[in-house]
Model the fold of this input.
Amino acid sequence: MASVGSSAVLLGPATFCAVTGGSRGLGRSIAVQLAGRLGEGSRLVLTGRSLQGLQETKRQVEEKSPNQLEVKLVTGDMEDSTVYHAHFCDIFADVKPGTFKNALMIHNAGTLGDLSKKAAEHSDAEILNKYYATNLTSVIALTAKFMQVFSASTVRRTVVNISSGTAIEPLEHHALYCSGKAARNMFFKVMAAEEPDVRVLNYSPGPMVTDMLHTTRSCGVKIVEDGFKAMESQGLIQSPDDPAKHLLTLLEEDTFKSGAFLDVFNRFSL
Amino acid sequence: MAEGGEGWTPPFSKRKSLCVITGGSKGFGRSVAVALAAELARDSHVVVLGRNSESLRDTEKLCKAMSPHIQITTLFGDLSKSSVTGSIFACLRFQVDPTDYKHALLVNNAGTVGNVSRRTWEHSDPLELDSYFNLNVASAVSLTGKFLEFVRPGNLPCTVVNVTCDEAQRPMKCHSLYCAGKAAREMMFKVMAQEEPHIRILNYNPGPLETELKTTVMIEAADDGVREEIRRLRDNNQLIDPDMPARKLVQLLKEDLFKSGEVVNFQES
Done:
């Protein structure tokens, strides 16, 4: 259901948007799609580990943006939780109260974890902690900062969690990825329940031609590689541009139930 | 379905089992330790991990009173610290020889509900979050891996239990961390069940229990409705005595008919 009482259009003028993992893949595609839709006075903040990658995304965004969209780049590695504070301050720097009518947080950055290991082989707690720090703690803490910065009820707030079918269905050799996605999905469902004024969406983009897919495809584990060949033969692997477009359409239509898990192919009846 | 065939030993038969339970100083963990002690064969060994030495001793006394023929070891350890899982087995190596046993059981029970006085967006301290997921997710996973490694020389049939709850699948206000952590664990053990056809894995939901965890929520939850709901359950005697689902769990393990990886709810069984 669309939120009542707000006259601002989701992606209209004066929208603040942050996209994590914007240096490549789906993050880049989302940024480029946003470029044409963010109205005057908007700001797009892209985060990622690779400055070079972020700069290329910025170049593509500026090419497409008719409104001289302000694009800001913030580099950082979410494995180390001691850097979050500075990193998050950078993301939201110079956000003066009243400047933005809409605020959109897209949690896209994520890592796969070591695909060569089975769940029972993940016995090193340090590695596990780094994984959950990167994929779970950072997302929760960043959401907290986002909500603190955009606390006024006059700002229409939307939070998107880039999820995966693996949040719902177990996948061999993806123990860390599945468990992290499952955790995020539930976290954002609770957020949706607690915050009826915030639009929350768990979005599963499906398999895409990205570096992440390439890693999976060439991991050397037969059952994983076979799984991807099967998806390929079913025509499920797309350019990340397609789910990026679909996501933005969902956000613009704004009819999704807050907290819903939506898949690009509607594969999961929930 | 239980495995059959030559060489397979059903758990809790007349032969010795090695059992490790986390979070055994109180609540459901204690109830499981005692329920196991009642059913295990002579000379089986129950290792109880917990964070409160005095309470661990009480658990030990209750287990010994239930069955003087079982060996009980208590180990103090704070699973929110990542070094602890390694040191648990380093310590056990001196006391336990897995080749002495015919079955191995791990019950991942330790867990906390998180700060329920905070809304989802108030969880801003990364160190607190890291510590939470370390205790509630990472430690259960690494402990399981180390446990399986530890018992491997004995070539024992293994069962791993993950204690789960409604909140792993049902979002509940004030419980964002608990829901996230439990969802992560359930999923982790479902993946494990797919990958390890020779390990019996059970996600067991004992239901809403009459324990300190629920008392904490009833007092501290930020949302009136959540506090009221627990109060209502308590007043209507709908909070479950942990001994009951503990006994049911042991029965399920004995029967060994569950589908590996499935979630079994005490309230529906």
